[in-house]
Amino acid sequence: MSIPTSVSTVAHVNGIQLAYQVFGTGSPLVLLHGGFGSVEMFGPNVELLANGRRVIGVDLQSHGRSPAADRPMRFETMADDIAALIKELGIERAAIMGFSLGGAVALRTAIQHPELVERLVLVSAVFKRNGWYPEMTAGMDSMGPETAEPLKRSPMYEAYARIAPRTEDWPVLVTQLTTALKVDYDWSAEVARLPMPVMIVIGDADGLPPSHAVELFGLLGGGKRDANWDRSGMTHHRLAILPGLTHYDINLSPALSRAVIPFLDNP
């Protein structure tokens, strides 16, 4: 199963250009990829999710088809970009689903613009920087502008080079992203106030421990009591830990869509 064909469009939001593609029709779902990626990072899940809904696949600041932006990269400003795009498209409220970096942007969008977010899906994402395994954080700390050249031998650069407006802007993306990933944060208090239904999805061999996902679920009020035979004890939040999946393949696995679609379809 391949990604369905769609024409890429560039929107002008918050002083930058943001590329996006639309797949399918129905209720809107904004799809946000991980670091160094683009909507293609979701592989077959784009088509699976677009079967019955309008998927808006966004290439985040300086990523993919979005021209390199002349500003620092921050989760908060990228969240404002997504909010501005939702308004630009005339959408009253949308579901948002983000993976890794995109999960952080999705979470900040829900925190900063809750009136625009109908429901939220966080895939392999943390709500505080030390939620990652130590080796993941160490990897982020070790990267900087100097890694742009060696990264040209990676599949991430190959994917970027196929679709970027200017491949020579690769060092701009690397510098902006590696700088952003070093910023410390803890959004615990803000997460606890989220009003919309939230689904947390990780792999059981992910870049964050299952305990972090459980902690996030608990901040939302989930996992506090027995649901009762009539399900009256349940919250409207969901937690899924998918077996046999890692931080490097959960985004491509059809199991991700199978877990998420019932949550998206639930009235």
Q: How would a crystallographer describe the biggest sheet? A: 8 strands, mixed
User: So, CATH architecture?
Assistant: 3-Layer(aba) Sandwich
What order do the SSEs take from the amino end to the carboxyl end, as H and E?
Answer: EEEHEHEHEHHHHEHEH
H/I helix tally:
9
Portion in helices: 25-40%
Say which CATH homologous superfamily is assigned.
Alpha/Beta hydrolase fold, catalytic domain
> What is the CATH first-level class name?
Alpha Beta
Class from helix and strand fractions: alpha/beta
Descriptive account of the structure:
The structure is a single chain. With 267 residues, the chain is of the alpha/beta class. The chain has a single domain, classed as Alpha/Beta hydrolase fold, catalytic domain (Rossmann fold), CATH 3.40.50.1820. The protein is built from 9 helices and 8 strands. It has an 8-stranded mixed β-sheet with strand order 1-2-4-3-5-6-7-8, with helices on both faces. A hairpin with a 2-residue loop joins β1 and β2. The chain is globular and about 60 Å long.
Name its key features:
Rossmann fold; alpha/beta; 21% strand; 9 helices
Topology:
Elements: E1 9-13, E2 16-23, E3 27-32, H1 45-50, E4 53-59, H2 75-88, E5 94-99, H3 101-112, E6 117-123, H4 134-142, H5 155-163, H6 170-180, H7 188-191, E7 198-205, H8 210-219, E8 238-246, H9 254-265
Parallel strand pairs: 3-4, 3-5, 5-6, 6-7, 7-8
Antiparallel strand pairs: 1-2, 2-4
